[in-house]
Structures are given as C-alpha cells and as structure tokens.
Design brief:
three-stranded mixed sheet, binds 3-hydroxy-3-methylglutaryl-coenzyme A
Length: 460
C-alpha cells in the first residue's frame, strides 16, 4: 500500500510577542505564576498590523516550496484550515495561491482549493482529506499543501485573553513522505457541544471551564475508538504524544488521563499498585461504563464516590516517578514552542508535533521507525486520534526548521502597544496602527480592493 504522510513542515509565527509573566500579568494585577506554572505559558505571538492569516499562511507555504524546490505544477491541492476567516464565500486558500503566484513561475489554476472548518481540529481533517485524495489515486503524482492559519484573539478581559496566539503551519502531504507516515487507523470522539463558538462574530463566546471538560471527554472517546481498530495502546508504544495545545496546562490534564487509561490492566498498573493502589473500577461503585446517565437501576450506584476515588487516585498517580518519567519524555517535549506562542488554534497540534521532532533532533534521538500518537481536538466538539511513524530522512527536514530564530526575532510589545495591536485586528474597530516591525522578504497586507477584498504584496 502507498505510504502517505507529511513530507515537509514549516511554521510562521506572528512577528510580535507579548510577555505574559513580565508584561501582561503585572498590567492585569495577576500573579505571573498563573501563566508560567498554571497555564504553562511564557508568551503569546501576535500579528503586526501588516500581517494576518493570509500573510502567515503564504509566508510559511512560500518557504516550504522554496526549500523543497517545488513549482506550482507539483501541488494539486491547497487546503487552508482556519477559524479566523474574513470571508464567508471566497476561501483563504485562493488568497494564498494568489500570493504564491506573485513569487513563482506558473500558476495554481489546476489545483483544487478549499477551506476547512471545525474549530481547531480542521487542519487535521484537511490532512485527512489530502491523505484520502492521494490514497484514492486522484492526485496525478502531485502533492497537497495543507495550511493551518489563525489569529487566536479573544475579547479584551475575557479569561481566554491569557491563551491568545497567532501563527501558521504549512504541511506538504505526499507519497513516500520524508517526516512521518500517517496510520490508516483513526479514532473519533464527536458530539454537539456548546463550549466555544463564534456565531458570526470575530471573538469567541467561551465557557472556559466547560471547554476543558469537553476536551477531555471527547479525547477519551477518541482514544477508545482508536483502540477499537488498532488494539490497546500502551505508554511505551509512542516516542511522543502531541496533543492539541490551547495552553500546556490543558495537555498536563490530558496526559494524566491518557496515562491512566493506557496503563490500566497492564504490568505498569500492577507495579504502581504497591505504591498507590489499583485504579478504582467503575463496577466496584455500581457505575456502568457509559457515564452517570446510564448507570442503570442498581440500588448501589455511587457515582460521587467513584468520581472522588478517581480524583484521589489521579493525584497519587501524578506524584509517581513512573508517571513523571513518562510525561517528561513523551509529552513535555511537545510543549516547548507552544509555551512561547500560545494557542494557534488549527495549527496547535501541528506545532506540538514540530516541537517534539525538534527536541528529538537536538537530543540525538534515533526516531526513525518510532511512533507518535497524535491527539487533535476542536471545540464544538471533536477529537481525533491517529498514529504516525517517523520515517528515514526526518532529521534533514527538521534541521531546516527556523522556529527558534523566528521566535527570537519577535518584537517584544509593551502593554500599551499590545492594546493598540489588539484594536488594530479587531474587525469592529476602525483603528489604523503603524507597524512596529518592517516587512522584509515576505508577504504583507497592503489594503483593500474595490470589492472589499484584502490585497497583498510580496515585499523584498
Ligand atoms: P482562568 O479562570 O483565567 O484561570 O481561566 P484559572 O484560575 O482556572 O487558572 C488556570 C490554572 O492556573 C489553574 O490550574 C490554576 O490553579 C492555576 P488548574 O487548577 O486548572 O490545574 N493558577 C496558578 N498556578 C500557580 N500559581 C498561581 C496560579 N493562579 C492560577 N498563582 C481558562 C483559564 C483556560 C478557562 C481560560 O484561559 C479560557 O477560557 N481559555 C479559553 C478556552 C480554552 O483554552 N479551553 C481549553 C479547552 S477547549 C480547546 O482546546 C479548544 C480551543 O483551542 C478552541 C478551538 O477548538 O477552536 C480553545
């Protein structure tokens, strides 16, 4: 069977940075450790006033095409995943193609372009579409360009303001890939949820605490669904587990839940039992596997007792050396970039994968042939889990990442500048703000066209 997966990855951050413990926390009169220790964030990325979802996407895609020596004719599909689109009809991918045509010989008239929407899980769905297109043999030897791009801004003073971010991830999906091969097996956890949405509005309506519960519930469902086709998962099966990362503290919760699930009924649980006891079993509390509403008519159902026992066990599990070691090796390395950029919505899980690969390269990990378990999530809500196998040649691809340079070059905003730039990107405000950085060798937003379209130019 044809091997299909990710052949190249490029990221593009917004050019500005907001220091969360140093600048944001003092201005909000909050403890900086809420950011560094609680949420797990040091900084957020923001777009300058000449940047937006199109420039970030086009800049990432342009670098990818240049680096891989691709011409438009080599790309048969451009899919953009975003939840920050500014047009309900014309997809962002057409703008991106227009930008790329400015700097490439040839055009993308032959390429199928679209836009994917399902909150943060949409880019994973677009990767899926590309995978299926190639597997179906409809690609005529061409590769697919999948780009996740978002300006994840919240209304000022919304609790989500702490988790903002802006950036794009471009991925080339192709046969015989050079980074990872994607598994056929997938698991889903999907339900009609009202936790985070943008009903015809720029900034989200969010029930933050509930969104975290929904994330965990759908992720667990997706893991069980994945196991139903791939067999039980075990913590030692995966070199890294990149999760959707709205903020690293969320992944801390997901990692613990995942570990508890994966070690159940394994020798790892037996070994830990001596230290912290065995995991509470639903049956012992008369609780069925389907949750409280399906607990049946048993006269001894003790849902609250079960929940309490689970909480206590999780607290104990969190303190074990075995868990610490696994988390440090498998999850922590996925969070490095995210800590510095915040939530990139659709790009977030793909940033987590990139972060893990970069960590492996820097630490000389022999990753070829090893597997990743990738947990994507989008509010509203859907989780998707699949596996990936790292392939020979991955080091060369990852060596080409310039994430560290990009992050280091960002302009460090003062709180007043942050307020101005937030206003500049607020669609309801007519605020013109001078850029604080100078575009160079990149696409920039230049103004509005006669039909209200946004216009872009490559600035040398
Ligand atoms: P909040 O009320 O500002 O923060 O909202 P908090 O008081 O809950 O504190 C956050 C954590 O910091 C807590 O840790 C505190 O204990 C800790 P936890 O108890 O949860 O482990 N903390 C401290 N730690 C050390 N020292 C201190 C300190 N103070 C507090 N001094 C919330 C947090 C995440 C709710 C908010 O930022 C929010 O609404 N964010 C937006 C929604 C979101 O990100 N949800 C995540 C799941 S949904 C998702 O991922 C989808 C999404 O990406 C969208 C999409 O799919 O399109 C968002």
């Amino acid at each position: 069977m044809t091997s299909v997966g990710i052949d190249a990855i490029e990221i593009r951050t917004g050019s500005l940075k907001l220091d969360l413990p140093g600048t944001f926390a003092p201005a909000k009169d909050e403890d900086p450790e809420k950011y560094t220790k609680g949420l797990g964030l040091n900084a957020s990325s923001f777009p300058d006033s000449y940047e937006d979802i199109v420039t970030m996407a086009a800049n990432a895609a342009h670098r990818l095409m240049e680096r891989k020596g691709l011409r438009p004719n080599d790309v048969g599909r451009i899919d953009v995943a975003t939840e920050s689109a500014f047009d309900n009809s014309k997809p962002v991918s057409t703008y991106v193609a227009g930008c790329l045509e400015q700097v490439n010989d040839g055009d993308f008239h032959h390429a199928n372009k679209g836009e994917r929407k399902f909150a943060c899980v949409a880019a994973t769905q677009a990767v899926d579409d590309a995978y299926n297109w190639i597997r179906a043999g409809r690609n005529r030897g061409r590769a697919a360009l999948v780009i996740a791009t978002d300006t994840a801004l919240y209304a000022r003073d919304d609790p989500g303001e702490a988790t903002q971010g802006a950036g794009a991830v471009a991925m080339l999906i192709d046969e015989d890939p050079s980074v990872v091969e994607i598994s056929t097996e997938q698991g889903y956890g999907s339900a009609d949820e009202t936790d985070f949405l943008k009903p015809q509005q720029q900034f989200p309506s969010v029930d933050g605490k509930r969104s975290m519960q929904v994330y965990l519930a759908r992720m667990r469902e997706a893991l069980e669904d994945f196991e139903s086709v791939s067999g039980d998962t075990h913590p030692d099966d995966y070199a890294y587990i990149p999760f959707h990362t709205p903020f690293p503290g969320m992944v801390r919760k997901a990692g613990l839940l995942g570990y508890r699930h994966m070690i159940r009924d394994t020798p790892v649980e037996d070994e830990l039992a001596e230290e912290i006891g065995r995991q509470p079993r639903r049956e012992a509390f008369g609780v069925s596997g389907q949750g409280p509403e399906a607990s049946g008519t048993s006269s001894h159902v003790d849902e609250a007792g079960y929940e309490e026992a689970v909480r206590e066990h999780m607290d104990a599990l969190k303190g074990t050396d075995a868990y610490h070691e696994w988390y440090g090796n498998t999850i922590e390395p996925t969070l490095t970039i995210s800590r510095e950029v915040g939530n990139w919505y659709t790009g977030s899980v793909h940033v987590a994968r990139a972060s893990a690969l970069q960590h492996a390269l820097e630490n000389g990990v022999d990753l070829a042939g090893q597997r990743l378990l990738v947990g994507s999530y989008g509010s509203g809500a859907q989780a998707e889990i699949h596996a990936e196998t790292v392939v020979d040649g991955w080091e060369e691809e990852v060596r080409a990442f310039d994430a560290d340079e990009q992050l280091a070059e960002r302009y460090d905003l003062s709180f007043e500048e942050y307020e101005e730039i937030h206003d500049a990107h607020n669609h309801e405000k007519d605020t013109d703000v001078d850029p604080v950085t100078v575009p160079e060798g990149e696409f920039a937003f230049t103004g509005w066209g006669r039909m209200g379209e946004r216009e872009y130019e490559y600035v040398n």
